[in-house]
Amino acid sequence: MSDPEKTPKDFDPDSDRTQLAAARHDADDDDDDDDDVEHIWQVNEIRLGVLSGALLLAGFLLGLAGFESWELWLSIAALIAGAATFVPGAVRDVFKGKIGIGTLMTVGAVGAAALGQFEEAATLAFLYSLSEGLEEYSVAKTRRGLRALLDLVPDEAVVRRDGAERTIATAELVLGDLMLVKPGERLATDGIIRTGRTALDLSAITGESMPVEASPGDEVFAGAINGTGAIEVEVTTTAQNNSLARIVHIVETEQSRKGSTQRLTDRIAKPLVPGILILGALIAIFGAIFGDPAFWIERALVVIVAAAPCALAISVPVTVVAAVGAASKHGVLVKGGTALETLGKVRTIALDKTGTLTRNKPVVIEVAVSAGHSKDDVLAFAAALEARSEHPLARAILDVAGTPRVAEDVTAVTGAGLTGTVDGVPIRVGRPGWVEPGALAADVSRLQGAGATTVLVERDGAVLGAIAVRDELRPESTEVVATLRKRGYTVAMLTGDNEATANALAQQVGITEVHADLRPEDKSQLIAKLRGTGRVTAMIGDGVNDAPALATADLGVAMGAMGADVAIETADVALMGDDLRLLPGAFAHARRTRRIMLQNVVVSLVLIGVLIPLALFGVLGLAMVVLIHEASEFVIILNALRAARSKDLRIVGAIESETGALARP
């Protein structure tokens, strides 16, 4: 049983106790913190509950043997042992103006003892302390699964300092250190490869089962396993603040954000607790006026205990903790109960094109030229301006153009292109419409129809040529879209690209609803319009350019968020890897979790509705009511822990089970 006000403790990455070894086991300085519980016997409530039960059983057996005085004193001892787990906290809460489930149980235990029913009072204390212990253990166990991410980081790292190699504790790494990572070793923190090439195993972090090639200049993350080659990595974050530590911190902090179902249970439990106390008082008062006071006081105590919303209070929080922890272990970062419930209610999915459906690695596929000009000239003038640009298309052009010429007065025209001068002659590089294609109109139309983005190059008012750049689809995009549509989701594509290119790519991937030529603010407005249809809408993007749309959607999902602070902070859900196959599993996991939540809430409310009249009319006594409550709570916890299963989240199985078409990587 749990008080509705009880919430998971936060992990503070900036505290003195966030050295790596401490972070694995301890979130704060609270002696009651159960996050480092590994065995059920370490839970204080379990130990005292078992002691209470043993004393109660011994007293019962001695009573059967005729030692009534021993039975009495052992029952009192059992009551004290069990009550020690909840009575002190309930008393403190009362002085703070809080009335919770512990208050009801305290009233029940104290009242029964006052009436001389020490065996019944001890039974209540015994069962309640055990249920509290089971809840603490189940929550600690699921939270420990999340904290296990930190165990992916080694305790030591080899660094080169002052020209010599030395082994130091991971917690002693500082920015700028050069880590030496041999094949088969895990990275101790985040960094950038300075020398060496390798293939990294990220399966434990992002859920991607295939190794990822990495070379000098690539960013790498804590916990990754170095595969094929020795590498030297420049440290860019301390061990306390690396990507894994940030993920654990964000998830544990966001677990305190309550979803709509949890808020519903709180809205029910908050007035219910004082209402139960008032009902018990009325039963006792009117019973004493019109009947035997002792009889009706006892009946009132039974009703109070029968109406306690114990199972209701834990029905959602334990489910959320279990589900979020399971998702994080498979590369899906869900920021608390609100995000989890919304994820399970989504029916419309808007997908950004670049970097989501595509690889975000555009390449030049063709160069069309006007009469009298060469491909080299077209690429050279384009590269001169693109060298000053951060646009993804710029890199594709620079990769094939060689050393760019020197350009001056380069200016970006938002949504259009670039202007500048080369050797004193004005140059424009940009999209069709801003630069008129002239004689290349047919080539531009053909290239756009093939799904390419076309960049026109103009020199002194004359079009030199058209460069076709295409960002290839991710290999899994078609299967993922097919899976989502088969499961009943409405799928739309949002892109800033032109309609011809967007439609060509959408046709390849199987999307019929396409919105093209969108600026970031246009995407946000479109998401608001989709939400206006009454269907819960999710936006899937990169978390940077799509930030307005992610914020506007009912649910924002950031792709490839590993190490990207802006993506993790902006979105409600972040996919730590770049594999779209995480999406169907994440949605399926959330929908299943919502069903478990609702099952628990319904069972809890039905139980209260049945027990109150049975207690009021004397069908059930105090001991039986307590036993039924604790048994139901045990069932609720077991059902909630089903949300920790990760079958839906497995990156391949989530799609194969639906389409049977996707080959294993």
Question: What are the salient characteristics of this protein?
Answer:
alpha+beta, 665 residues, six-stranded antiparallel sheet, elongated, 25 helices, 49% helix, Calcium-transporting ATPase, cytoplasmic domain N, disordered C terminus, seven-stranded mixed sheet, 16% strand, Calcium-transporting ATPase, cytoplasmic transduction domain A
Task: Give your account of this protein's structure.
With 665 residues, this protein is of the alpha+beta class. Among the domains are: 20-148 and 250-324 and 591-649, no CATH class; 154-239, Distorted Sandwich (Calcium-transporting ATPase, cytoplasmic transduction domain A), CATH 2.70.150.10; 363-470, 3-Layer(aba) Sandwich (Calcium-transporting ATPase, cytoplasmic domain N). It is 49% helix and 16% strand. It has 25 helices and 22 strands. The strands form four sheets. A seven-stranded mixed beta sheet has the order 10-22-21-20-11-18-19, sandwiched between helices. A six-stranded antiparallel beta sheet has the order 2-1-3-9-4-7, with no helix packed on it. It has a six-stranded antiparallel beta sheet with strand order 12-17-16-15-14-13. A hairpin with a 3-residue loop joins strand 13 and strand 14 (417-422). The longest helix has 35 residues, at 582-616. The two termini are 45 Å apart.
Portion in helices: 40-55%
| Poorly predicted regions | 1-35, 652-665
Query: Major beta sheet, specifics?
Result: 7 strands, mixed
Structural class: alpha+beta
Quote the average pLDDT.
81
The amount of beta strand, in percent, is 15-25%
Number of strands: 22
The number of helical elements comes to 25
CA gyration radius, whole angstroms: 32 Å
Instruction: Report the oligomer.
Output: single chain
Q: Strand order, biggest sheet?
A: 10-22-21-20-11-18-19
- For the termini, the CA-CA separation is 45 Å
Described by the principal axes of the CA atoms, the overall outline is elongated
